[in-house]
Amino acid sequence: MKNIQLGLKENWQQFTLLVLVNMMVGGMVGLERTVVPLVGTEEFNIQSDIVVFSFIIAFGIVKAFTNLISGVLADKYTRKKVLIWGWLVGLPVPFLLAFAPSWNWILFANVLLGVSQGLAWSMTVNMKIDLVGKKSRGLAMGLNEAAGYGAVGLTALLTGYLASHYGLRPEPFYIGIAYTIVGILLSIFLVKDTRKHAELEAAQIQATTSGEEAHKPNLWWVFKQTSFKSKNLFSISQAGLINNLNDGMSWGVFPLLFMSLGVGLEGVGWIKAVYPVVWGVGQIVTGPLADKWGRKPLIVWGMFIQVLGHIVIGMEILDPLTAGLVGSVLLGLGTAMVYPALLAAISDAAHPNWRASSLGVYRFWRDMGYAIGALMAGIVGNFFGLMWAVHIAGIITFISGIVVWVRMKETLEK
């Protein structure tokens, strides 16, 4: 462990580089936020909400399962190798989105994107946690997710602008080609592996704040522990799932809902951008607050603020653009509170020996929320209208916040 040190200050150069890489990773998701649902309805004339949202379902399921094995792969092959593999899998995605001749090719692009995101984003999370140690986890996750989701929002806005001026395809997707080239070059030539940092921290800790001990369990043991056996890890995992259920719902529903309410393409671009930009930038503040105030208060109140966002979007007394913007700000603010606190709480509760695998299980459940949210929105939208999908998501989010309030104990070591 010679010359290996833990801490943000001690590793600021690699940390900053990983923040930049995660901006490229997040930008790849932002490519789809505004334009792809409209490609389905306007170019391919798809009438069913479930079929239109199928690209989100495919993305969510594949990303969830890739998250599950990403920690195991990282422990076996190193974090850096898995990060590079993620970029290589994602290389064809912007070309497929730009030139796909049928909807099935769009679905295939999202399978590749799910694998790419599951590998690449998982590694940027793990590598930053490895570098900073236990004192600055909230800040580290705030900066990581701020970079990623800030890029999601800005790319969603930019693609909406390009689509309104040049058409839905191919111009909006050219940005993704630049993201993949920059991301893969940085990952190959400048990023350094961080597994030695995790080993150093593991040697210093016998048991975590939740009492989780230092041993090398198999993935099935970690899956059970993270999913339901540990009250804390269960509470965190279900909150992550419901949080991304909201995102999966909004990803598919908002472009179609607000276009149907008379909001133009640029307006939809703004609504789609505000949510992840507030989500992203807000984490620069909420990440450090999770280190100061604790994880649980931010998770509980973040879920309740998201509920308020759903309520505002459903208010008929507001014009659709105003309701969409204000509701998206509230959704973004609530998610900004929840996201770094959840990641930090998982990192607190899981021992460093099996933390990468536990993070993979948490992110499996969290990103399964994309698929569940899109499927729920498609079914509810077909039968009761898209606005009811927003209402149902709000009710589920409220219940999830209550679960955290009742079952989770604070994980921050005082």
From TrEMBL:
Q: Where in the cell is it found?
A: Cell membrane
Q: Which InterPro entries match?
A: MFS (IPR011701), MFS_dom (IPR020846), MFS_trans_sf (IPR036259), MFS_Transporters (IPR050171), Sugar_transporter_CS (IPR005829)
Q: List the keywords (alphabetical).
A: Cell membrane, Membrane, Transmembrane, Transmembrane helix, Transport
Q: How does the UniProt record describe the way this protein sits in the membrane?
A: Multi-pass membrane protein
Could you tell me which PROSITE patterns the record lists for this protein?
MFS (PS50850), SUGAR_TRANSPORT_1 (PS00216)
**What positions belong to coiled-coil segments?**
none
Q: Which domain of life is it from?
A: Bacteria
One GO molecular-function annotation for this sequence? transmembrane transporter activity
Per the record, its GO cellular-component terms are: plasma membrane
Residues spanning the membrane: 12-30, 50-70, 82-99, 105-125, 146-167, 173-191, 298-318, 324-346, 390-408
Q: What is its main location?
A: membrane
Q: Where is the Major facilitator superfamily (MFS) profile domain?
A: 14-412
| Name of the protein | MFS transporter
Its source organism is Pelobium manganitolerans
